[in-house]
Write a structure and sequence with these properties.
InterPro entries: AAA+_ATPase, ABC_AA/LPS_Transport, ABC_transporter-like_ATP-bd, BCA_ABC_TP_C, P-loop_NTPase. It holds the Pfam family BCA_ABC_TP_C. One of its GO terms (cellular component) is plasma membrane. It comes from Actinoallomurus bryophytorum. By secondary structure, the protein is an alpha/beta fold. The protein has 2 domains: about 170 residues, P-loop containing nucleotide triphosphate hydrolases (Rossmann fold); about 80 residues, 3-Layer(aba) Sandwich (Rossmann fold). It is about 40% helix and about 25% strand. The strands form 2 sheets. Strands 6-7-8-3-9-10 form a 6-stranded mixed sheet, with helices on both faces. Strands 2-1-4-5 form a 4-stranded antiparallel sheet, with helices on one face. Helix 3 packs across helix 5, helix 3 runs parallel beside helix 6 and helix 5 packs across helix 6. It starts with 5 loop residues before the first strand and ends with a helix. About 40% of the residues are buried. It binds adenosine-5'-triphosphate (ATP).
């Protein structure tokens, strides 16, 4: 991995809920082209970290900075849709699809994140949007093909099996042409074959140089895909390193054993 530049810097970020810290003084830097895994026991603060990066939550202290092509800026005070337009895409935990829409329509919503006009004006089919709509449709079909769902374009999204719903969410995120892709537990609940398909897709994206962050519990999955791993425990960043380094890290082993004993 060549460290050409930094895509994301999280600087001493803290966030609490009802007086309890979900994240406390967490810092990390993600390099361009890197796949960074974020692991940690339940309640460690992983989803909170992703929400602070995507803009669905704001930090109480600290800052999140983001930049590609030499343009670096603080993301503070930018709404999620603005961050999406800057190239930050998130695939949330579970399945979040637009019910009552086809697979293709779900992906087209992702493409609208990067256009000026938005989905509604596009849906009204004003003349100046038609050309853009055709391009978005083509992009969405390409994204579906990319994740192996080309034959499912006109099916209702909510009747797809879980593995394909997850793939559909990924296609939607890819259609927005992200520069930083956040994947929150993308493999959870998937069967072994679906998991393998997903792992290969993430490997392809990594080989193409897409910068990704990945929250995942499955260490085999993480060890295979991540360049580096950040470990959170009780809202703190307790370790960072390569998968090999993290596997042998005593603080990490203690955190997981502690979580097992408590659970
Ligand atoms: N919106 C919220 N309101 C109140 N508490 C919250 C909220 N979001 C997170 N928390 C709390 O913050 C802590 C960290 O939660 P978070 O979901 O970030 O952890 P996580 O590492 O993603 O956990 P999991 O692996 O279970 O998904 C938890 O104690 C959780 O209860």
């Amino acid at each position: 991995m060549s460290t050409v530049g930094t895509v994301l810097t999280v600087e001493s970020v803290s966030r609490s809920f009802g007086g309890v810290y979900a994240l406390r003084d967490v810092s990390l830097t993600v390099a361009e082209g890197e796949t960074r895994a974020v692991i940690g026991p339940n309640g460690a603060g992983k989803s909170t970290l992703f929400n602070l990066i995507s803009g669905h939550l704001t930090p109480e202290r600290g800052a999140v900075r983001y930049g590609v092509d030499g343009d670096r800026r603080s993301l503070d005070h930018l709404a999620p849709h603005v961050r999406a337009r800057l190239g930050i895409a998130i695939v949330f935990q579970g399945s979040r699809l637009f019910r009552g829409m086809t697979a293709l329509e779900n992906v087209m919503v992702g493409a609208h994140a990067r256009t000026r006009h938005g989905f509604l004006s596009g849906a009204l089919r004003l003349p100046r949007h038609r050309r853009e709509e055709a391009a978005i449709r083509a992009d969405a079909l390409a994204a579906l093909d990319r994740v192996g769902l080309a034959g499912w374009a006109d099916r209702a999204a909510d009747i797809l099996p879980l593995g394909q719903q997850r793939a559909l969410q990924l296609a939607r995120a890819l259609c927005a042409r992200p520069r930083l892709l956040l994947l929150d537990e993308p493999a959870s609940g998937l069967r072994a074959t679906e998991r393998e398909t997903l792992a290969r897709l993430i490997e392809d994206l990594r080989a193409e140089g897409l910068t990704m962050m990945l929250v995942e519990h499955d260490m085999a999955f993480v060890g295979r895909l991540a360049d580096r791993i950040s470990v959170l425990d009780l809202g703190r960043n307790i370790a960072e390193g390569t998968p090999e380094e993290i596997r042998g890290d005593e603080a990490v082993i203690a955190a997981y054993l502690g979580a097992e004993a408590a659970g």
